[in-house]
Amino acid sequence: MWACTVCKRARCSWRSDPRIARLAAFLVAALLSLARLRSAYSAAFTDSRAALHHGRYDQAAAALAGHGIGERPWYDTTPHWDYDAYAWALAAEAAVTTGLPDATQRLAAAAPAAQENLWAAACLARANGRLHDDRAALQESLADWQRIGSRFEHACTLLLMPDRTAQGHAELDALGCPPPAA
User: Fold this and answer.
1) DSSP state of 76
2) pTM score over 0.85
3) Rounded Cα gap, residues 49 and 127, in angstroms
4) Domain 41-175 - what CATH class?
5) pLDDT truncated to tens, each residue of the chain (182 aa)?
6) Which one, out of 70, 80, 146, 155, has a CA that is 20 to 30 A from the CA of 10?
7) How far, CA to CA in Å, does 54 sit from each of 11, 138, 154?
8) At what angle do helices 57-64 and 18-53 cross, to 10 degrees?
């Protein structure tokens, strides 16, 4: 969409000034590269979340590998896009669920994403609850999911609490979703 806007605005100038045409072509190429990067993060997030739900934990972790998540601090000089916080939080949760030895470090690396994004905050609270068998963290996650209206994630979190699994199954049934594997 940005690329189209640049093209439309520069189209009239292209005919009269080849320098503007080269600049516009450069900007279009740069914007398309950014769009592909953002799309890759979104696709990796979706693949990872689906794999987690279906019990394919190694695949969930692998889907987000190679995107540089957690390799640098969140607040370095790298700009973040709309969906980065989702991917960082889910990468940490996948590490916890998969039982990766660096799960604690991934949670710590993703923690600043929770300051930027409510979904990431809820996801990371759930991951902390899983890792440390911390009911208070799971309760925090439930409250966060409810606050943002994420019924599916709320239901999946309920399933992690033995005394609330029936409620989680009922919510998933109401949504027409199967329960997560194991």
Assistant:
1) S
2) no
3) 13
4) mainly alpha
5) 444 444 444 444 444 555 554 544 544 554 444 455 456 667 778 888 888 888 988 888 888 887 666 666 656 656 665 677 888 899 899 999 989 898 999 899 889 888 889 999 999 999 999 999 999 999 999 999 999 999 999 999 999 999 999 999 999 999 988 899 86
6) 80
7) 48, 21, 17
8) 160
